[in-house]
Amino acid sequence: MFDPNPDPFADPALADLVAKKLLAGADHAWELQQPPDFDPIESAERFMNLAQSVQTIVGEDCPLELWPAIREATFHGELVLPTAVLVEPTSAVIRASNFANLIAILDDDRTVKPQVLAQLRRRFERAGYRFIPALPLRRAYNGHHRGTQQFRRWADRLFGYL
């Protein structure tokens, strides 16, 4: 059956290219913490609404942290996923970047049970976020921010503390 909106990350040949384009497009040469047009209030509200949907999917309340409690970071929202939805007992957090409406599950989205991950990704998309798998975020940062010494990986640049 033809899918008019295929998942670009489902095709390994496309996934790398798509991730590189999204990451490079989100990077800002001069702004460290957030792009000039970033609205922290709207972003925190949107993430709070997403968190409610995520908690419905996972079936329990999850620890949540939002801007302005999150400071000196390139993300504005973090939700800790319960171990019940993980493949093995480890930890996983959903973080929403201040750049380009990107969202990721760190340290590795593959730790989330596949059926739960599929539901989360659909919910992210409906909320206006662009999901980035963890693998491209582990790559060395090679972006164009002026002061790149402090960023080791793309995850540090777009989803980390400064």
Q: Explain this structure to me?
A:
With 162 residues, the protein is α+β, with helices and mostly antiparallel strands. The protein is built from five helices and five strands, in the order H-H-E-E-E-E-H-E-H-H. Strands 1-2-3-4-5 form a five-stranded mixed sheet. Strand 1 (64-66) and strand 2 form a beta hairpin. Helix 2 (40-58) packs antiparallel against helix 3.
Topology (SSEs and partners):
Layout: H1 12-26, H2 40-58, E1 64-66, E2 75-80, E3 93-97, E4 102-106, H3 114-126, E5 130-131, H4 134-137, H5 154-159
Parallel strand pairs: 4-5
Antiparallel strand pairs: 1-2, 2-3, 3-4
| Count of domains | 1
Average pLDDT level: 91
Walk across the major sheet and give the strand order.
Answer: 1-2-3-4-5
| Beta strand % | 5-15%
Output the helix-strand order: HHEEEEHEHH
Q: Could you tell me the radius of gyration in angstroms?
A: 15 Å
Total helical elements = 5
Roughly how much helix do the residues carry, as a percent range? 25-40%
Shape: globular
Number of strands: 5
Largest sheet: 5 strands, mixed
Tell me the distance between the termini.
Answer: 46 Å
The helix-and-strand class reads alpha+beta
Q: Uncertain regions: pLDDT < 50 for 5+ in a row?
A: none
Concise structural overview:
With 162 residues, the chain is α+β, with helices and mostly antiparallel strands. Helix content is 35%, strand content 13%. Strands 1-2-3-4-5 form a 5-stranded mixed sheet.
